[in-house]
TrEMBL record:
<protein>
    <recommendedName>
        <fullName>IrrE N-terminal-like domain-containing protein</fullName>
    </recommendedName>
</protein>
<dbReference type="GO" id="GO:0001046">
    <property type="term" value="F:core promoter sequence-specific DNA binding"/>
</dbReference>
<dbReference type="InterPro" id="IPR010982">
    <property type="entry name" value="Lambda_DNA-bd_dom_sf"/>
</dbReference>
<feature type="domain" description="IrrE N-terminal-like">
    <location>
        <begin position="246"/>
        <end position="372"/>
    </location>
</feature>
<dbReference type="InterPro" id="IPR039060">
    <property type="entry name" value="Antitox_HigA"/>
</dbReference>
<dbReference type="Pfam" id="PF06114">
    <property type="entry name" value="Peptidase_M78"/>
</dbReference>
<dbReference type="GO" id="GO:0006355">
    <property type="term" value="P:regulation of DNA-templated transcription"/>
</dbReference>
<dbReference type="InterPro" id="IPR010359">
    <property type="entry name" value="IrrE_HExxH"/>
</dbReference>
């Protein structure tokens, strides 16, 4: 039977029972059953939350989205814009929204003022590039480029162009979907992110000759769950990298550049090879595992070509629906929401209840402790269960290459 939007309590409880039965059999589910469990979970969450989908961050897209959602016609927007001609001009992007329009739309249609003002939009990279703003000194000190002589310093544009072109990453090709903390919105930081991505691609190309071909049909919720359960092993991070590379996904480690706050990234090379990059800026097991599965979720759901790169600071909330989906898929792979909300670890948190749930789900206790801290907003508890200092020492050679 096809899964449908939940409209009654009976339907809700029926889906709840079915998901519970599927979770119990999670290790032996077929691909169709795994997909059904994922769909039912989304429907249940939507019903429980009673919230509308996150609105698009482009102001005009947000208005069109709300019109479609409420079945509105252009004529219905005249009270907000004043005249039918203004409605057409605004929706055709020929006239900007005024303060009065923004106030009226926010109150009348429930669209956030920040979205209408455009504060949530990702600032595009300017066509006029200031090549001197690339972090050349840091790139040289980390061995990414040859040391520049006094004569070549004046040729920054040529040097950086060669470096970027060598990775196949064209300026403007990467889309930074998550707002980053610190100086991330400044031009200098944007350039640093491009430089970092170019380095990631270069390192990935060295590694990908030793990996299997990528088959996107193999990536599903069962794949994520199997990857998550590798965390149960003391060698989990090493096994995870090996597991991904056996499935054609390159994993590289590269520390973030100064002024950027990056946990990880997901992108594809020009030949279609998926690349996951991790900075390990937090040397903790909970951060490693969630970042890794978040990026794998991007590979599965959001990387259709080589024109985008997801560069993530997981400390920052995002209204991008793709980021929300990656968070949800990663979270479900570790601890299904229906199990989490009914677990002793969530209801009566203690080291014992955290360890018991981790044992039941075959995941590392650090992941349960990290989930609890995140969901409660209390980051002062269970710090000794996060696996601090247990990741970087597994990737010493990779990190030496990243210096």
């Amino acid at each position: 039977m096809d899964a449908k939007i939940i409209r009654t309590e009976d339907q809700y409880h029926a889906y709840l029972k079915e998901v519970g039965d599927l979770i119990v059999r999670s290790e032996v589910l077929t691909a169709d059953e795994q997909n059904r469990m994922e769909v039912l979970t989304v429907l249940i969450e939507s019903y429980e939350n009673g919230k509308c989908p996150v609105e698009p961050t482009d102001p005009i897209d947000a208005i069109l989205f709300r019109m479609e959602e409420r079945g509105l016609k252009r004529a219905d927007l005249i009270p907000y814009f004043g005249t039918s001609s203004r409605v057409s001009e605004v929706l055709n992007r020929k006239r900007p929204l005024t303060v009065q329009m923004i106030r009226a739309l926010s109150l009348g249609l429930g669209i956030s003022a920040d979205t209408l003002v455009g504060l949530n939009e990702v600032a595009p990279v300017k066509k006029e590039i200031d090549w001197s703003k690339f972090p050349i000194k840091e790139m040289v000190s980390r061995g990414w480029m040859d040391r520049l002589t006094s004569k070549s310093i004046g040729l920054a544009e040529s040097v950086i162009k060669d470096y970027i072109a060598g990775s196949g990453l064209q300026i403007g090709a990467a889309s930074f979907r998550r707002s980053l903390a610190g100086d991330a919105t400044s031009p200098t930081t944007v350039y640093a992110l491009y430089a970092w991505l170019a380095r990631v691609i270069q390192k990935a190309r060295v590694s990908k000759n030793n990996i299997n071909a990528f088959d996107p049909s193999k990536i599903n919720s069962g794949f994520l769950r199997e990857l998550a359960q590798l965390s149960w092993s003391e060698r989990g991070p090493l096994l995870a990298v090996e597991y991904l590379q056996n499935h054609g996904i390159v994993v590289v480690f590269e520390g973030h550049l100064k002024g950027t706050q990056v946990d990880g990234a997901a992108l594809k090379d020009v030949d279609g090879t998926p690349i996951i990059a991790l900075t390990l800026r937090y040397d903790r097991l909970d951060n490693f595992w969630f970042t890794l599965l978040h990026e794998v979720a991007h590979v599965w759901k959001h990387l259709d070509g080589d024109e985008e790169a997801f560069v993530d600071d997981l400390n920052v909330s995002s209204e991008d629906r793709r980021e929300a989906e990656a968070n949800r898929l990663a979270g479900e792979a570790f601890i299904p929401r229906l199990i989490w909300r009914r677990s002793d670890a969530y209801i009566s948190p203690s080291k014992e209840s955290i360890n018991n749930l981790a044992r039941e789900l075959k995941i590392h206790p650090a992941i349960v402790a990290g989930r609890l801290r995140k969901d409660t907003g209390n980051f002062s508890v269970f710090s000794d269960m996060l696996g601090s200092g247990e990741v970087k020492n597994m990737f010493v050679s990779e990190l030496e290459d990243a210096v």
